[in-house]
Amino acid sequence: xxxxxxxGSLPKPAWLAETKKLWxxxxxxxxxxxxxxxxxxLLWIKEQEDAGIDxxxxxxxxxxxxxxxxxxxxxxxxxxxxxKMGIRDNRYDAMVPVVVGxxxxxxxxxxxxxxxxxxxxxxxxxxxxxxxxxxVDTIADRHYGDKVxxxxxxxxxxxxxxxxxxxxxxxTIQFDEPAFNxxxxxxxxxxxxxxxxxxxxxxxxTAVHICYGYGIEANLHWxxxxxxQWRQYEQIFPALAKSKIKQVSLECANSNVPLELLKxxxxxxxxxxVIDVASDTVETPAQVAATIGKALKYVPRNRLFPCxxxxxxxxxxxxxxxxxxxxxxxxxxxxxxxx
Length: 339
Ligand code: ZN
Prior knowledge:
The chain is α/β, with parallel strands linked by helices.
């Protein structure tokens, strides 16, 4: 009961990349960088195990950014001439690459880190990838000319990599779809279809993560405009409940999401965010257990998995580690309290 996991990313050590940045520059290149990525992956596997996390991740140590880390392995994208684009409904600007031809995978995307992590932990292993809708919202297009076609093309590539990851021994494959909280009508129109395409034929556990973003300035600003009750999930959860995805990861700690919305995810495992990634204040185990207790009113105990609100990539490394420890300790406390 209450198996713990994390949304995905973890801070990169200062010797691997710039710290506290969403798009950090690597500290090395070539073989030296490849070795550093391996070392950082192993380090975080060990830290997660020692903290008491049950379903561990590679911490996304091998990719610069959660979306572009995938795109680098896709043919048909021009990275040389990036363009400025407003993303997440113009919440912030990003320099994004451009789709210029038919999309195809150049080869395996996450094979190295998945196999490395698999070889070094007996815990369940999760690998994350960006969801089709979020990718389409983070790239410019000069070839497909149609958002849905483009998203479906990406979904096919994601599925190809996901099937290979399953063969590598990955237990959970999670797609990150922060865009689901922004384009709620599109989610119902085609977002869930593309997600179903991405998980087609998988037998491992599948998950989708939907959140209000990392604790960066633009997101904190956006959250202030959302009012006292954040009800975006209300519009998409009924449709998600009908999807083929097994788990839904969302944020509940220090957020204005009314927890009764969790009822709308009937039949799904719910990865309940009990750790706020937008604050450097480390939760106490009692606070974590209390959040689990509140969610328990709406989620059956065998379907509740305590998790972080979102990825921890831009956080201070020591604080992130303390939060992982609090997450596991809080879940342990909840196991006693809500037996
Ligand atoms: Zn997130």
